[in-house]
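Posting this for the archive.
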Amino acid sequence: MLGAWFWLEGPSAWPVAAELCRVAGWTISAAGQLVFLCLVADRLFPSAPRRVVLAIEGVTALAVVIGMIWLLVAAAELAIGALP
């Protein structure tokens, strides 16, 4: 729910950081999806093809990593004053 709030309501709450709110929401949602995939879906569907599971979990993990890198770079730019 936090990811959805950041994605949908964050830009109106913080118009200056609208893009960062959208990326943060996307990243938080992807992280929640990854946790669900690793902890719940693997137990509910133990006979799922391993290639399919690894592909879906890999894409989701990649989304989390890209989002975190994006947010860290944006935070560094904010700290040095490169962003408004």
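The longest helix spans residues 50-80. The chain has one domain: 2-80.
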